[in-house]
Amino acid sequence: MGSLPNTPQRLNTVEEYKSFVDKFDTFLLDLDGVLWHGSHVLDGVVDTVDFLRKNGKRLVFVTNNSTLSRANLVKKFERLGIQASEKDIFSSAFATAVYLRNILNFPADKRVYVVGESGIVDELNAVGIKTTGASDDNGIVMTHTDFGKIEQDPSIGAVVCGFDINLNYTKLAKAFTYLNNKEQGAHFILTNDDTTFPAPNGIYPGTGSLCASLITALKRKPLVMGKPNKPMLDCFFSNYHTDPSRTCMVGDRLDTDIDFGAQGGIATLMVLTGVSTEQEALDPEQPIKPTFIIQGFGELAKVKDA
Amino acid sequence: MGSLPNTPQRLNTVEEYKSFVDKFDTFLLDLDGVLWHGSHVLDGVVDTVDFLRKNGKRLVFVTNNSTLSRANLVKKFERLGIQASEKDIFSSAFATAVYLRNILNFPADKRVYVVGESGIVDELNAVGIKTTGASDDNGIVMTHTDFGKIEQDPSIGAVVCGFDINLNYTKLAKAFTYLNNKEQGAHFILTNDDTTFPAPNGIYPGTGSLCASLITALKRKPLVMGKPNKPMLDCFFSNYHTDPSRTCMVGDRLDTDIDFGAQGGIATLMVLTGVSTEQEALDPEQPIKPTFIIQGFGELAKVKDA
């Protein structure tokens, strides 16, 4: 949508909320920090979702989580009392499937070797792409005499890596072997590159850290799908065909959500119910600027009562 | 030993070999590419080892391999017909034990969490350092509901990471949890940072690649022990007390062996029976220069027949 203003517009009044809502047809929504914290849904969020949909707005929930298929993510939304269908969810695993199918025209006779969980396998299979690896290689432990036994597999057209709690050396060695064969030219795709993720008692190594092993061994950069990377937004538009000038990304983190929208040239709304603070957004040294700032996504429900 | 000549001296004649040998009391020897290729011992090597020892020279075999203890490496030497005792072998696992004991004065009431194989555990235990992790965590698979269950362990004073064919997410998550606790201040040590290693049918991800996961997640640099890093040579001198000006590193790779000696300020002999070529060594753009170049380590045996 061309040049965006460099100073974020702070939305404080119901009039400003209404004017903001009127500017857009589609809202891309980050989950944790925008809709909920862990399993606690934030104030006004259910009402805002309801209000926006009743006013004809399309809501798409955008997540870097690749371990669950959209079908399983829908169940999480249901548990938390937010209505969502598979079509309303845009996950990094689904985006990867869209990328392979729509953008790479992944050949029908090739397979994807997956270092990851069922979310990736289910989404790839759902668009007709055959997979191998993943849970098939869970618990397969190599010994030092096995190195000669890992062989090239010409059927592998891509290696897709996401978070995998069953990561093991066998998976790394296979993925490395397939990707290190330059003649075969297999694509190397990460669902996302978050280096850590939050859990109830602290943070843990995330997809970006697990995949650093392969990147280091291969000395080769993967295509990285998830926020804040542009391929995720390219895949979004290739799948949803919404008008970018009427699409707004809503998120709590400057370095992922807001950067994601900014890199893709769409408007962004930063909420203050998550990780990044207003002070960080307004810091003159901060290169990533949201278009709009609001206290919380739940605030927007106040428009319906005005 | 101060400034070394920038142009390598090519040793071609028996007189030059003799003059070279006379300059040194101790030779540090890389293994693969210098002594043998895989299980094939190179020409003249057994005779050269014999000749040098009979002339009062000390030979120390230097390896980044951390998976085997020196006791087990001795068995490999025996199988290949080269006589060696544990005292003649300086491995990255043993160097790490020397570093923790001699340089860090590792506290007696602390333990080391090991991501690695028995070589590290055996060498640490041999110098009286208690360990945990390693094979105890082989095959321990976490689930997504286990994240709350990994707890801080105040007894952990260091995390040592080497090659581990049984690497799994549990090990990474534990190592990350211990190292990410800044108050605890646990040391973070890699036995070596080779990104790949050669195997019979190709190369595979090595220690440096496996540990890239932790480095990426922690955003923290480890102390790296093995060649070409200087701590390995510091530990060598702290353990062997040889005269650096009478010590020469012999190796086939410019980027590991020769750089190792050069960084430590000792003389280096490059052999042409391994990875790096004479052309690479003489390239004006090449920043790493050996002091001497010889066709092969086995050449030196010719001195005894002269």
Please supply descriptive tags for the structure shown above.
homodimer; 306 residues; alpha/beta; Rossmann fold; 2 domains; seven-stranded parallel β-sheet; 12 helices; 4-nitrophenylphosphatase (chains A, B)
Could you please describe the fold and organization of this structure?
Chains A, B: Mg(2+) binds at residues 30, 32, 252. Chains A, B: Keywords: Hydrolase, Magnesium, Metal-binding. Chains A, B: One of its GO terms (cellular component) is cytoplasm. Chains A, B: This is 4-nitrophenylphosphatase. The structure is a homodimer of 306-residue chains. Chain A is α/β, with parallel strands linked by helices. Chain A has two domains: 9-64 and 228-305, Rossmann fold (3-Layer(aba) Sandwich), CATH 3.40.50; 106-224, 3-Layer(aba) Sandwich (Rossmann fold), CATH 3.40.50.1000. The first copy, chain A, has twelve helices and 16 strands. Chain A has helices at residues 14-22, 45-54, 70-79, 92-103, 118-126, 169-179, 207-210, 212-218, 230-240, 254-263, 278-282, 302-305, and strands at 9-10, 26-29, 36-37, 40-41, 58-63, 89-91, 111-115, 130-133, 156-161, 187-190, 196-199, 202-205, 223-224, 247-251, 267-271, 292-294. Chain A has a seven-stranded parallel β-sheet, with helices on both faces. The longest helix of chain A is centred in the first third of the chain and has 12 residues, at 92-103. The radius of gyration of chain A is 20 Å and the shape is elongated. The mean pLDDT of chain A is 95. The A-B interface holds A 67, 138-139, 141-144, 147-148, 150-151, 164-169, 172-173, 176-177, 180, 195-196, 199-206, 208-210, 212-217, 219 and B 67, 138-139, 141-144, 147-148, 150-151, 164-169, 172-173, 176-177, 180, 195-196, 199-206, 208-210, 212-217, 219.
